Amino acid sequence: SSKIDFEGYHVFIARDNCKESFSLLASYDQLDYNKYVLVTNDNPHDEDEFMILDDPFSLEELRCMYSSAIDPCNDSTFDPLNYTMSTPYFHFQFPDSIFYFTPHDFNQSEFGATTDIRKIYPNEPPPKSNKHFLPDELTEDGYPKYYEYEYIVNNLLPTVPYWVSVTAFDFGSFRTGLNTLESGITLFAKEAYPNTSWDEKPNEVGRVYVYPNPYRQDSWYRVNGLEGLGEWDRSRDRVRKVTFANLPSRCWIRIFSLDGDLIRELWHNVDSDDPNSSYKEWDLVTRNSQMIVSGLYYWVVEDEQGHTQIGKLVILM
Fold first, then answer.
1. Going by C-beta distance under 8 Å and a sequence separation of 6 or more, which residues neighbour residue 264?
2. How confident is the model over 118-151, as pLDDT tens digits?
3. What is residue 215's predicted lDDT score, i.e. its pLDDT?
4. 32-39 and 209-211 as β-strands: parallel, antiparallel, unpaired?
């Protein structure tokens, strides 16, 4: 439509990166309204009908156009939603102009109030320039504070990863018949484990554990959605996994047989600010690209300082 028609953002969550799996968590969209105008049909046998003829209007635009106050643009008492299909607005200068208003989308534009999305730095003023930022306008990671938002998702399982996606959408164009356009849900989706102790991430070994332990073939992990989500084209043997948790952000993981043979060696190297930095999955494939067999194994986690932790893992295939 060649217009700057940004409307808002949607926040989605899913257990896999398939479009059909995502559920809407939260929304932010600008405060605007659809205007339904009563259109008279030329055919006397057809009823008149309300139609949308324009793009959405902001609250300020509607106040300036239709408030009867002395200072209409600053009339805080004017509410477009007071005019409905059953009680429409009649323009006092143009009696044949009849219309009513509805919210366009959710109209959730007040951070922390009408939407659960909130600003991390609510008192941060807009930057003087979007190209060059002052040091106190940036976070420790180098991002502009003014544009930092957060949404807290509760009641998630800490042992499985989730896919999270933030999309942007516009309001389309009613005049040209162009529907609302939205960025792809799966295009920039990110996979992450829920971090229940963001400020207590381990920086050394000592509290590492592995799950499920024992790993049981007859527990039907795939059927229960605990492994292989979104990988339906892969065989069951190629989606098995156990997960090491409470890991330092950089460490070696080595799995041995009881005889001391090295079964698999994994290097874990994830930025400490990443929510996945304390997790590492093993696909139960040996260093010789063979599927693991039933037995008792032991694992050793070694951090960069040379500290180690030893544990046991039972595989029942």
1. 254, 255, 282, 285, 286, 287
2. 999 999 999 888 888 999 999 988 999 999 999 9
3. 96
4. unpaired
Distance CA 57, CA 59 (A): 7
**Where in 104-249 does DSSP place strands (E)?**
118-119, 149-150, 162-170, 190-192, 209-211, 215-216, 242-245
Is there a contact between 288 and 261 (Cβ–Cβ < 8 Å)? no
Written in H, E and C, the secondary structure of 53-87 is CCCCEEHHHHHHHHCCCCCHHHCCCCCHHHCCCCC
Q: Say which amino acid occupies 90.
A: F
Residues 256, 298 contacting (CB under 8 angstroms): yes
- Cα–Cα distance measured from residue 234 to residue 228, given in angstroms and rounded to the nearest whole number: 8
Is the pTM higher than 0.85? no
Could you give the domains of the chain? 6-192 (no CATH), 199-316 (2.60.40.1930)
Ranges of beta strands (E only) in 188-261 are 190-192, 209-211, 215-216, 242-245, 250-257
Task: Give the C-alpha separation, 80 to 62, whole Å.
Answer: 7
- The whole-angstrom separation of Cα 40 and Cα 51 is 10
First to last CA, the chain: 59
Q: How far is CA 199 from CA 166, 196, 243, 296, in A?
A: 24, 9, 21, 34
Cβ pair 205, 248 in contact under 8 A: yes
pLDDT at 196 over 70: no
User: What pLDDT score does 1 carry?
Assistant: 56
Q: If you average pLDDT over residues 252-270, what whole number do you get?
A: 96
